[in-house]
TrEMBL record:
This is UspA domain-containing protein. Residues 7-169 form the UspA domain. InterPro entries: Rossmann-like_a/b/a_fold, Universal_stress_UspA, UspA. It comes from Acropora cervicornis.
């Protein structure tokens, strides 16, 4: 890979997403050491690379007022509260990562993005917008039947991406 790679790393706060960044490291005494030993930094990073961390969440569906007994105003207010909580959670997650990587600004060029929508679609869209050269992401390790029934974000991204996707598998039990 050339020294001008743009690597997209999706984050969702799960252990497997964290593993893609931290390679499953348990609480290190100094986070800078943990970051330098993370999967991406250890196996992939080249000087000059730019990393785009992205968090996408599916908006909570708003209940429709099909039935006359539904109080649309209260449903809308509740939906707004749920959406605000989801936005706050996304900002908090990205701030946590921003704080973790702040000490590495001289070694790691990165930016944080959060957006709403189906996570797989958002990841693919931003990989195009950011001219990403690779996506590095974690996998939940769903079985074949569960993955077929409910799908997985990593499966979607692998199937729809026009660039290489590195999927970090979960730890084997």
């Amino acid at each position: 890979m050339s020294s001008t790679n743009v690597v997209l790393i999706p984050l969702d706060g799960s252990k497997n997403s964290e593993r893609a960044v931290n390679s499953g490291l348990v609480h290190a005494t100094h986070f800078q050491t943990a970051v330098l030993n993370c999967w991406y930094m250890e196996h992939f990073h080249l000087k000059g690379d730019r990393v785009v961390f992205i968090h996408a969440f599916d908006p909570v569906p708003m209940q429709s007022a099909k039935h006359t007994g539904v109080d649309f105003k209260n449903s809308y207010d509740e939906w707004c509260i749920l959406m605000q909580k989801a936005q706050d959670s996304a900002r908090c997650l990205l701030k946590e990562y921003d704080d973790r990587f702040a000490g590495l600004k001289d070694k790691l060029s990165y930016k944080m993005i959060h957006d709403t929508g189906k996570p797989g679609e958002v990841i693919i869209d931003y990989s195009k917008k950011e001219n990403a050269t690779c996506i590095v992401m974690g996998s939940r390790g769903l079985g074949k039947i569960r993955r077929t029934l409910i799908g997985s974000v990593s499966d979607y991204v692998v199937r729809h991406s026009l660039i290489p996707v590195v999927v970090i598998p979960p730890f084997s039990s």
